[in-house]
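Can't attach files on this board, so I'm pasting raw text. These are the components:
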Amino acid sequence: MKQSTSLRAFLGKRSTQWTGILVVLIFAVTLPLYANIYVIGVAWNALFYMLLALGCNVIVGYAGLCDLGYSSKVAIGAYTTAILMKTFGWNFWATLPVSILASAIIACLVGMPTLRLRGDYLAIVTLGFSEIIRLVARNLNVTGSASGISGIKSPVIFGVKFSTPWMQYFIFLILVIIFIFVSLRLKRSRFGRALEYMREDEDAARAMGVNVPRFKLLAFVIGSVMGGLAGSFYAVKMGSFSPSYVTFTESAYILLIVVLGGMGKTPGMLLGATLFIVLQEIFRNVGNSRMLIFGILLVLIMIFRPQGIWPDKRPSFLPSRRERKQLSERTETHGTG
Amino acid sequence: MALVEVDHLTVRFGGLTAINDLSFTTEEGSITALIGPNGAGKTTAFNCLTGFYKPTEGDVRFDGKSLAPLKPHEITALGIIRTFQNVRLFKRMSVMENVMSGPHSITKQSVFGALFHGPAQKKEEAFIRQTALESMEFAGIADLGDSIAQDLPYGLQRRVELARAIAAKPRLMLLDEPAAGLNDAEKEELMALIRRCRDELGITVFLIEHDMDMIMNLAEKIVVISFGSKIAEGTPDEVKNDSVVIEAYLGSEDEPA
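---
Top answer:
Structure tokens for the assembled complex are below.
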């Protein structure tokens, strides 16, 4: 009896939310059954941008750091995987930990001296760093110089080649789900809240004991690792990677999705990436002038809905009556360490 | 031993001496006020206690430990919490989330805790929420948990800021002009709350304030500074009748008008 009422309260409050998630999930999983190759390709592209937006969101949305060079983080992961597979003959999965490590180390090296800078200055540093990555990749032999690395072998997963379109689609879908999970877990934690305190008011956050440089660096590293991982999968999906990917335009697209979707909001990233890709397909025949359309869109968003298209709603941390008891029981043994 | 010792503190900004050889102490469990005319250096002294400024000469000690080499977050970790002159809440977050920032300095789960959500993380998360709830209850804002901070009237925002400070379970609370911008009724309530922080929670309170009513009612010891130097120190009655203090505030009688 007691359980059924609480269950009903639970469903009543959240049922619309869960129905929504379920519908989207069923649609996403069954898509390859009825879509043609073109649609699967477009959907894959949307998934790829979701990954990038979710990673960039940790840096830009959660921590409020202005990053204009996110594509370079993708490149670090992509090159790590490409070089290890092509030059050293590694297995794709074995390259992933290295890709994570490389992304993290480079993010630390760049972040430690520069994250003290505020706003615009940091934007210029990240932009400059992205150019450095591009130019270094262009001029090194190990990265295949200007033409990049091609002929990266497609790994085989459960007997299916990764190059099969629906396989690519599913692998990226799983990645997106993992990234969503990571984003949500980070957000609803002491760590995530500290980032948000910092973004809202850096001095007040500092006064409450937030180690601002450390938390900024952590957010920067996490965002970079997510970008690097997306890059690793991108490299084997494409079978090649070249410095021409690392452009300001590419970084600007990712930032556009984050701002369009609503900084810091996970579902906003998914919606933003989907919108971005769909609009790109719709306006494909107008060629380069679609950039103009995105520009106008961004200006309109900034004027009329600076918080992004996804609705703004704060999670409630107030406990239910039942939970209230549990909370006090659980904390009884907790010291103030 | 005194909880706070300000020991021959001098702070200079370029050629300007904001604080000149200032010394005083605060006992554990007391309410001490620092007052002085505009520009006397109150806020500068305050910022030295919170690590936002560094002393040029002299030292500031908490429980015998020098605060000068510490960063603000390290000072907070010692159990010193501050509020701001013009309320600094996390404006677009809920009241509960604001107050939950209090226990930040006494908890430690970070990225891996957040990702793996193990028992230690769950326990700490429960502790943070429980502490926040208790503080909100204590400050009389228990039913405002889900309100957005910036939507509240100013008087309540002050309360939220205080609740946030209480949630850090501090030993010392530094209040920067807590009565600024409040009406008389709100001021009364706030004074009662500050007194309860000391009486019921045992928090030592140190405040700087302009409002004389508040100071005389609340503080047990008053330190008066003018142009960066201490000119008087004592109980409210002693300070009130001190001729040097009266002169600093009102000007001397034989000064040409």
